[in-house]
TrEMBL record:
It is an enzyme of class 4 (lyase). Its EC number is 4.2.2.29. GO terms for biological process: cell wall organization; peptidoglycan biosynthetic process. This is Endolytic murein transglycosylase. The record marks 207 as: Important for catalytic activity. Belongs to the transglycosylase MltG family. Keywords: Cell membrane, Cell wall biogenesis/degradation, Lyase, Membrane, Transmembrane, Transmembrane helix. It comes from Candidatus Woesebacteria bacterium RIFCSPHIGHO2_01_FULL_40_22. One of its GO terms (cellular component) is plasma membrane.
Protein backbone atom coordinates (compact mmCIF):
# COMPACT_ATOMS: atom_id res chain seq x y z
CA UNK A 1 0.00 0.00 0.00
CA UNK A 2 2.84 2.30 0.95
CA UNK A 3 4.52 1.67 -2.41
CA UNK A 4 1.32 2.48 -4.23
CA UNK A 5 0.98 5.75 -2.34
CA UNK A 6 4.60 6.63 -3.09
CA UNK A 7 4.06 5.82 -6.79
CA UNK A 8 0.91 7.90 -6.92
CA UNK A 9 2.68 10.77 -5.22
CA UNK A 10 5.62 10.52 -7.60
CA UNK A 11 3.25 10.41 -10.57
CA UNK A 12 1.39 13.44 -9.26
CA UNK A 13 4.65 15.32 -8.87
CA UNK A 14 5.70 14.37 -12.40
CA UNK A 15 2.34 15.43 -13.81
CA UNK A 16 2.58 18.72 -11.91
CA UNK A 17 6.11 19.30 -13.23
CA UNK A 18 5.00 18.51 -16.78
CA UNK A 19 2.00 20.79 -16.51
CA UNK A 20 4.11 23.56 -15.02
CA UNK A 21 6.74 23.12 -17.72
CA UNK A 22 4.03 23.02 -20.37
CA UNK A 23 2.56 26.21 -18.95
CA UNK A 24 5.96 27.87 -19.15
CA UNK A 25 6.42 26.75 -22.74
CA UNK A 26 2.92 26.97 -24.16
CA UNK A 27 0.79 28.97 -21.75
CA UNK A 28 -0.65 32.44 -22.41
CA UNK A 29 1.73 35.38 -22.33
CA UNK A 30 -0.82 37.46 -20.41
CA UNK A 31 -4.40 37.70 -19.23
CA UNK A 32 -5.77 40.47 -21.47
CA UNK A 33 -8.66 39.53 -23.75
CA UNK A 34 -8.24 42.71 -25.80
CA UNK A 35 -7.76 42.00 -29.51
CA UNK A 36 -4.53 43.33 -30.99
CA UNK A 37 -3.09 43.04 -34.48
CA UNK A 38 0.23 41.38 -35.19
CA UNK A 39 1.62 42.41 -38.58
CA UNK A 40 3.78 40.38 -40.90
CA UNK A 41 5.20 42.86 -43.46
CA UNK A 42 4.96 42.33 -47.20
CA UNK A 43 8.71 41.94 -47.43
CA UNK A 44 9.27 39.45 -44.62
CA UNK A 45 12.74 38.24 -45.63
CA UNK A 46 14.88 38.21 -42.52
CA UNK A 47 11.88 38.49 -40.20
CA UNK A 48 11.90 36.08 -37.26
CA UNK A 49 8.16 35.70 -36.64
CA UNK A 50 8.66 33.81 -33.38
CA UNK A 51 10.96 36.50 -32.01
CA UNK A 52 8.50 39.21 -33.05
CA UNK A 53 5.59 37.39 -31.42
CA UNK A 54 7.61 37.09 -28.22
CA UNK A 55 8.76 40.73 -28.29
CA UNK A 56 5.14 41.85 -28.63
CA UNK A 57 4.05 39.49 -25.81
CA UNK A 58 1.81 37.26 -27.91
CA UNK A 59 3.68 34.11 -26.85
CA UNK A 60 5.15 33.17 -23.49
CA UNK A 61 8.23 31.23 -24.58
CA UNK A 62 10.22 31.30 -27.83
CA UNK A 63 11.59 27.77 -27.51
CA UNK A 64 8.14 26.35 -26.93
CA UNK A 65 6.69 28.11 -29.96
CA UNK A 66 9.59 27.06 -32.19
CA UNK A 67 8.95 23.47 -31.06
CA UNK A 68 5.30 23.75 -32.11
CA UNK A 69 6.25 25.28 -35.46
CA UNK A 70 8.75 22.53 -36.15
CA UNK A 71 6.54 19.62 -35.11
CA UNK A 72 3.11 20.73 -36.30
CA UNK A 73 3.53 23.48 -38.91
CA UNK A 74 6.75 22.75 -40.73
CA UNK A 75 5.02 22.66 -44.12
CA UNK A 76 2.72 25.62 -43.48
CA UNK A 77 3.41 29.15 -44.70
CA UNK A 78 3.15 32.27 -42.58
CA UNK A 79 1.70 34.76 -45.01
CA UNK A 80 2.25 38.54 -44.96
CA UNK A 81 -0.69 40.37 -43.44
CA UNK A 82 -2.33 41.12 -40.12
CA UNK A 83 -3.37 38.57 -37.50
CA UNK A 84 -5.73 39.28 -34.61
CA UNK A 85 -4.48 37.94 -31.27
CA UNK A 86 -5.12 38.51 -27.60
CA UNK A 87 -2.51 38.11 -24.87
CA UNK A 88 -4.52 35.34 -23.15
CA UNK A 89 -4.21 32.93 -26.09
CA UNK A 90 -2.26 29.69 -25.70
CA UNK A 91 0.73 29.06 -27.95
CA UNK A 92 -1.11 26.43 -30.02
CA UNK A 93 -3.97 28.90 -30.59
CA UNK A 94 -1.47 31.48 -31.83
CA UNK A 95 0.10 28.79 -34.02
CA UNK A 96 -3.26 27.93 -35.58
CA UNK A 97 -3.97 31.52 -36.51
CA UNK A 98 -0.50 32.54 -37.69
CA UNK A 99 -0.36 29.55 -40.08
CA UNK A 100 -3.94 30.04 -41.27
CA UNK A 101 -5.79 32.74 -43.18
CA UNK A 102 -4.82 36.35 -42.50
CA UNK A 103 -7.29 38.63 -40.75
CA UNK A 104 -5.98 41.65 -42.65
CA UNK A 105 -4.53 41.43 -46.15
CA UNK A 106 -1.95 43.60 -47.84
CA UNK A 107 -3.25 45.23 -51.02
CA UNK A 108 -1.07 47.41 -53.25
CA UNK A 109 -2.93 49.65 -55.70
CA UNK A 110 -0.72 50.79 -58.56
CA UNK A 111 -0.46 54.16 -60.27
CA UNK A 112 -3.72 55.93 -61.17
CA UNK A 113 -6.11 52.97 -61.49
CA UNK A 114 -9.76 53.10 -62.45
CA UNK A 115 -12.08 51.80 -59.76
CA UNK A 116 -12.68 48.47 -61.55
CA UNK A 117 -8.94 47.77 -61.36
CA UNK A 118 -9.01 48.52 -57.65
CA UNK A 119 -11.98 46.18 -57.30
CA UNK A 120 -10.13 43.34 -59.03
CA UNK A 121 -7.18 43.69 -56.66
CA UNK A 122 -9.49 43.77 -53.65
CA UNK A 123 -11.50 40.77 -54.83
CA UNK A 124 -8.32 38.72 -55.22
CA UNK A 125 -6.81 39.75 -51.88
CA UNK A 126 -9.98 39.70 -49.77
CA UNK A 127 -11.67 36.71 -51.34
CA UNK A 128 -14.71 38.54 -52.72
CA UNK A 129 -17.40 36.82 -54.71
CA UNK A 130 -18.37 38.10 -58.14
CA UNK A 131 -21.48 39.58 -56.57
CA UNK A 132 -19.41 41.59 -54.09
CA UNK A 133 -17.12 42.79 -56.89
CA UNK A 134 -20.18 43.88 -58.89
CA UNK A 135 -21.42 45.80 -55.85
CA UNK A 136 -18.03 47.51 -55.55
CA UNK A 137 -18.24 48.68 -59.17
CA UNK A 138 -21.88 49.72 -59.14
CA UNK A 139 -23.05 50.34 -55.57
CA UNK A 140 -20.31 50.93 -53.00
CA UNK A 141 -18.42 53.38 -55.23
CA UNK A 142 -21.56 55.12 -56.43
CA UNK A 143 -22.88 56.66 -53.21
CA UNK A 144 -22.09 60.25 -54.28
CA UNK A 145 -21.19 61.67 -57.71
CA UNK A 146 -17.85 62.95 -56.43
CA UNK A 147 -16.93 59.45 -55.15
CA UNK A 148 -17.72 57.60 -58.39
CA UNK A 149 -14.12 57.73 -59.57
CA UNK A 150 -10.82 59.36 -58.65
CA UNK A 151 -10.85 58.88 -54.87
CA UNK A 152 -9.49 55.31 -54.62
CA UNK A 153 -5.97 56.45 -53.92
CA UNK A 154 -3.03 54.35 -55.21
CA UNK A 155 -1.12 53.14 -52.17
CA UNK A 156 -0.42 50.07 -50.04
CA UNK A 157 -3.21 49.13 -47.63
CA UNK A 158 -3.67 46.58 -44.86
CA UNK A 159 -7.38 45.74 -45.07
CA UNK A 160 -9.65 43.54 -42.94
CA UNK A 161 -10.84 40.52 -44.91
CA UNK A 162 -14.11 40.39 -42.93
CA UNK A 163 -15.33 43.85 -44.01
CA UNK A 164 -17.72 44.23 -46.92
CA UNK A 165 -16.98 46.39 -49.93
CA UNK A 166 -18.86 49.41 -48.60
CA UNK A 167 -16.61 49.55 -45.55
CA UNK A 168 -13.52 49.12 -47.70
CA UNK A 169 -14.68 51.93 -50.02
CA UNK A 170 -15.05 54.19 -46.97
CA UNK A 171 -11.47 53.35 -45.95
CA UNK A 172 -10.22 54.36 -49.40
CA UNK A 173 -12.18 57.61 -49.37
CA UNK A 174 -10.91 58.47 -45.89
CA UNK A 175 -7.34 57.85 -47.04
CA UNK A 176 -7.91 60.01 -50.10
CA UNK A 177 -9.25 62.81 -47.88
CA UNK A 178 -6.11 62.63 -45.75
CA UNK A 179 -3.93 62.96 -48.85
CA UNK A 180 -6.06 65.67 -50.46
CA UNK A 181 -6.73 67.88 -47.42
CA UNK A 182 -3.44 69.86 -47.73
CA UNK A 183 -4.51 70.95 -51.24
CA UNK A 184 -8.05 72.12 -50.49
CA UNK A 185 -7.21 75.68 -49.45
CA UNK A 186 -4.82 76.00 -52.40
CA UNK A 187 -7.54 75.06 -54.88
CA UNK A 188 -9.95 77.46 -53.17
CA UNK A 189 -7.36 80.25 -53.38
CA UNK A 190 -7.15 79.70 -57.15
CA UNK A 191 -10.94 79.47 -57.48
CA UNK A 192 -10.74 75.89 -58.71
CA UNK A 193 -13.28 73.31 -57.58
CA UNK A 194 -11.57 70.32 -56.03
CA UNK A 195 -13.53 68.02 -58.34
CA UNK A 196 -12.19 69.94 -61.35
CA UNK A 197 -8.66 69.69 -60.02
CA UNK A 198 -9.05 65.96 -59.52
CA UNK A 199 -10.35 65.45 -63.07
CA UNK A 200 -7.35 67.30 -64.50
CA UNK A 201 -4.97 65.42 -62.20
CA UNK A 202 -6.34 62.11 -63.50
CA UNK A 203 -5.71 63.16 -67.11
CA UNK A 204 -2.19 64.28 -66.22
CA UNK A 205 -1.43 61.01 -64.49
CA UNK A 206 -2.55 58.86 -67.42
CA UNK A 207 -0.84 61.05 -70.05
CA UNK A 208 2.51 61.77 -68.38
CA UNK A 209 5.61 59.72 -69.09
CA UNK A 210 6.80 60.48 -65.57
CA UNK A 211 6.57 63.02 -62.76
CA UNK A 212 8.89 65.35 -64.67
CA UNK A 213 6.27 65.73 -67.45
CA UNK A 214 3.29 66.42 -65.28
CA UNK A 215 3.41 70.19 -64.86
CA UNK A 216 4.01 70.75 -68.59
CA UNK A 217 1.06 68.53 -69.51
CA UNK A 218 -0.99 70.36 -66.90
CA UNK A 219 -0.11 73.68 -68.56
CA UNK A 220 -1.15 72.35 -71.97
CA UNK A 221 -4.47 71.00 -70.64
CA UNK A 222 -5.25 74.32 -68.95
CA UNK A 223 -4.33 76.15 -72.19
CA UNK A 224 -6.76 74.01 -74.19
CA UNK A 225 -9.52 74.55 -71.64
CA UNK A 226 -8.92 78.31 -71.59
CA UNK A 227 -9.10 78.47 -75.39
CA UNK A 228 -12.23 76.31 -75.60
CA UNK A 229 -10.48 73.53 -77.48
CA UNK A 230 -11.46 69.90 -77.33
CA UNK A 231 -8.91 68.19 -75.12
CA UNK A 232 -8.47 65.24 -77.53
CA UNK A 233 -6.75 63.10 -74.90
CA UNK A 234 -6.40 59.42 -75.74
CA UNK A 235 -6.62 58.38 -72.09
CA UNK A 236 -10.28 59.43 -72.00
CA UNK A 237 -10.94 57.03 -74.86
CA UNK A 238 -9.04 54.28 -73.08
CA UNK A 239 -11.47 54.88 -70.23
CA UNK A 240 -14.52 54.47 -72.47
CA UNK A 241 -12.94 51.38 -74.03
CA UNK A 242 -12.76 49.64 -70.66
CA UNK A 243 -11.20 46.21 -70.42
CA UNK A 244 -9.47 44.74 -73.45
CA UNK A 245 -10.05 41.25 -74.77
CA UNK A 246 -6.79 40.11 -73.15
CA UNK A 247 -8.06 41.25 -69.75
CA UNK A 248 -5.87 44.34 -69.51
CA UNK A 249 -6.95 47.94 -69.01
CA UNK A 250 -5.75 51.16 -70.72
CA UNK A 251 -5.13 49.51 -74.06
CA UNK A 252 -4.65 50.94 -77.55
CA UNK A 253 -7.58 52.75 -79.16
CA UNK A 254 -8.56 53.02 -82.79
CA UNK A 255 -10.53 55.48 -84.90
CA UNK A 256 -13.84 53.79 -84.08
CA UNK A 257 -13.29 54.40 -80.36
CA UNK A 258 -12.62 58.08 -81.03
CA UNK A 259 -16.02 58.31 -82.72
CA UNK A 260 -17.85 56.63 -79.85
CA UNK A 261 -20.61 58.82 -78.41
CA UNK A 262 -19.74 59.16 -74.75
CA UNK A 263 -19.53 62.14 -72.37
CA UNK A 264 -15.96 60.98 -71.72
CA UNK A 265 -15.06 61.34 -75.41
CA UNK A 266 -12.70 64.29 -75.39
CA UNK A 267 -12.56 64.23 -79.21
CA UNK A 268 -16.29 64.79 -79.65
CA UNK A 269 -16.99 66.94 -76.59
CA UNK A 270 -15.18 69.97 -75.25
CA UNK A 271 -14.37 70.47 -71.60
CA UNK A 272 -13.69 67.92 -68.89
CA UNK A 273 -15.26 64.50 -68.51
CA UNK A 274 -18.08 63.98 -65.99
CA UNK A 275 -15.68 62.38 -63.50
CA UNK A 276 -11.96 61.69 -63.19
CA UNK A 277 -10.84 58.74 -65.30
CA UNK A 278 -8.64 57.24 -62.57
CA UNK A 279 -7.41 57.92 -59.05
CA UNK A 280 -4.30 60.15 -59.23
CA UNK A 281 -1.62 60.50 -56.57
CA UNK A 282 -0.36 63.72 -54.96
CA UNK A 283 2.20 64.33 -57.75
CA UNK A 284 -0.52 64.66 -60.36
CA UNK A 285 -2.73 66.69 -58.00
CA UNK A 286 0.17 69.05 -57.33
CA UNK A 287 0.72 69.40 -61.10
CA UNK A 288 -2.95 70.22 -61.71
CA UNK A 289 -2.68 72.96 -59.10
CA UNK A 290 0.63 74.35 -60.37
CA UNK A 291 0.81 74.04 -64.17
CA UNK A 292 3.95 75.03 -66.02
CA UNK A 293 3.59 78.27 -67.96
CA UNK A 294 3.77 77.40 -71.64
CA UNK A 295 2.39 78.48 -74.99
CA UNK A 296 2.17 74.86 -76.13
CA UNK A 297 -1.16 73.31 -77.07
CA UNK A 298 0.09 69.94 -78.32
CA UNK A 299 2.49 67.28 -77.09
CA UNK A 300 3.74 63.78 -77.76
CA UNK A 301 6.15 61.31 -76.25
CA UNK A 302 8.88 59.70 -78.32
CA UNK A 303 9.87 56.05 -77.98
CA UNK A 304 12.12 56.92 -75.04
CA UNK A 305 9.17 58.62 -73.30
CA UNK A 306 10.68 62.06 -73.72
CA UNK A 307 8.01 64.74 -74.16
CA UNK A 308 7.96 67.21 -77.07
CA UNK A 309 5.42 70.01 -77.16
CA UNK A 310 4.31 72.39 -79.91
CA UNK A 311 2.51 75.72 -80.06
CA UNK A 312 0.78 75.08 -83.40
CA UNK A 313 -0.69 72.01 -85.01
CA UNK A 314 1.79 72.36 -87.87
CA UNK A 315 4.68 72.18 -85.39
CA UNK A 316 3.00 69.16 -83.79
CA UNK A 317 2.88 67.41 -87.20
CA UNK A 318 6.60 68.08 -87.62
CA UNK A 319 7.24 66.54 -84.18
CA UNK A 320 5.26 63.48 -85.22
CA UNK A 321 7.45 63.07 -88.32
CA UNK A 322 10.61 63.71 -86.34
CA UNK A 323 10.05 61.67 -83.21
CA UNK A 324 7.53 58.99 -84.16
Amino acid sequence: MKRILIALFTLSVLIFILLAYGWVLFGPAGTSKEIEVFIVPQEKDGLDVTESLYDQSFIKNEKGFRFLLDKFARDKEIKPGGYRFSKNMYAWQVLGKITGRVDLAWVTISFCPRKEQVGEKLASALGWSQDELDKWNNVYTNTKPEYFEGVYYPDTYLLPVDEHGGQIAARFINHFNEKFTPFIDKFIAKNIKWTTGLKIASLIAREAGGVEDMKLISGIIWNRLDQGMALQIDATMQYTLGKNEDGSWWGDIDLAEKQKDSPYNSYLYKGLSPTPICSPNVDAIEAALNPEETDCLFYLHDNAKNIHCAVTYEEHLENIKKYL
